[in-house]
């Protein structure tokens, strides 16, 4: 039996997350098409979750949540996105 693996694209995931960081007004559009579990890489799922949570709460600084959850370790540091 052949195991099916969904396709993924690391650069596309990074581009989406970068857009969410650079332009939070893009988040509603992203949410129309993607969910946390759509991201293949664990660090991307974690960052997406934080960005969504902070966007929902409006005005919070996402940087604190990223540090608290040690997400940068999964993403090879700040310059990653």
Would you mind describing this structure in some detail?
The chain is mostly helical and 81 residues long. It has one domain (10-80). The protein is 58% helix and 0% strand. The protein has 5 helices and no strands. α1 packs parallel to α3 (42-57). It starts with 9 loop residues before the first helix and ends in a 7-residue tail after the last helix. One of its GO terms (cellular component) is primosome complex. This is DNA helicase DnaB-like N-terminal domain-containing protein. One of its GO terms (molecular function) is DNA binding.
Topology:
Layout: H1 10-22, H2 27-33, H3 42-57, H4 62-68, H5 71-74
Helix pairs in contact: 1-3
Labels describing this entry:
mainly alpha; globular; 81 residues
Task: Give a brief outline of the structure.
This is DNA helicase DnaB-like N-terminal domain-containing protein. This protein has helices spanning 10-22, 27-33, 42-57, 62-68, 71-74.
Distance between the termini: 37 Å
- Strand proportion: under 5%
Q: Oligomeric form of this entry?
A: single chain
Tell how many strands the DSSP assignment holds: 0
- Averaged pLDDT, please? 82
| Basic shape | globular
- The radius of gyration over CA amounts to 13 Å
Which ranges are low-confidence, i.e. pLDDT below 50, for 5 or more consecutive residues? none
Class inferred from helices and paired strands: mainly alpha
Helical amount: 55-70%
- Strand count, sense and closure of the main sheet? none
Keywords: DNA replication, DNA-binding, Primosome
InterPro entries: DNA_heli_DnaB-like_N_sf (IPR036185), DNA_helicase_DnaB-like_N (IPR007693), DNA_helicase_N/primase_C (IPR016136)
GO cellular component, one term: primosome complex
Pfam family, one: DnaB
């Amino acid at each position: 039996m052949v195991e099916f693996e969904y396709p993924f694209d690391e650069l596309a995931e990074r581009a989406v997350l970068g857009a969410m960081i650079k332009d939070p007004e893009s988040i509603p559009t992203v949410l129309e098409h993607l969910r946390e579990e759509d991201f293949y890489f664990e660090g991307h799922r974690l960052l997406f979750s934080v960005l969504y949570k902070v966007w929902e709460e409006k005005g919070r600084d996402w940087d604190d949540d990223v540090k608290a959850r040690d997400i940068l370790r999964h993403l090879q540091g700040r310059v990653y996105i």
